[in-house]
Amino acid sequence: MASPHVRQMVAAGWALMHAGNTRGAIREFTSALAAAPEDRDALVGLSQSHLNVGEINQADEPASALLRLAPELAVAHRLKAEVFRRKRQRGKALEFAKEAVRLDPDAPLGYHILALVHFDQKDYKAALKAVTEGRAAAPDFAVLAAQQALILLEMKGGKAAEPVANEALQLGMGDDYVLTIVARIAIARGRLERARDLLDAVLQRDANDEEAISLYLLTNPNRYGLLRSRLQFPSWRKEHGVLGWTAWISVWILLLMLAIAIVIGTHVPGIAVGVGYRLFWQAQYLGHRREVKKHFARPVLRSGY
Q: Which of 131, 134, 160, 185 has the fewest CB atoms within 10 Å of its CB?
């Protein structure tokens, strides 16, 4: 049994993680493991903390140690599944995720990881099945509700996803994952002000949340219309069946004809036009991302980001 001092460090680590101070959590968990190398809670916390900041190799070490110590623990398999998923080794990720669910069919995070792996593989039916089973085990878990909405967005469009997104928001108003997914669906539905308010809440807590920043830029109605259409048009297409597919094909034909006309009219190779266009927008996008980070990192915000 761990000493009171080790238990105190582990408790401090979890408190810091939940408060958003991941680096502080890593220090506490590392200190706890220096005193008690086989402390399971510290191993879980250290692996999860490294995952939260995208340090996959560092997350793998405590996850593997936990798996060796306690192969019967579902959380050990869940952490390994997430590590393999981040490494894009999806076959191994799927094996560990399934085992995590088998070992603890009442733990919602196991279903969450399993659905994430299926989603990465674009197997949306399997992802939806995993989420549905998870929600049956934990109906009030907001993350699974938001995940279900995201899967429905990919399968059927924003109209089908929106009611589930609203349910997820009621269950988890303070969860950044939930807010970000609901904001994505709001953008797909053209509700830019709502999406902006949701992402504002996320970025107030973490000005470096890359996904939230990317979506936040799309909420400005005067910028990035083409990028926004890449989220909105597929959703519209899925909602409108044959009409949607007809419009989708027509747009691509028009874009191809436009590209050919530019090449013929300017005598500039098509690849040069494409690369030039991409570099121009990429420079604009990176510059505005920096502005958003500065905007939310300051106590007093500037207008217009």
A: 160
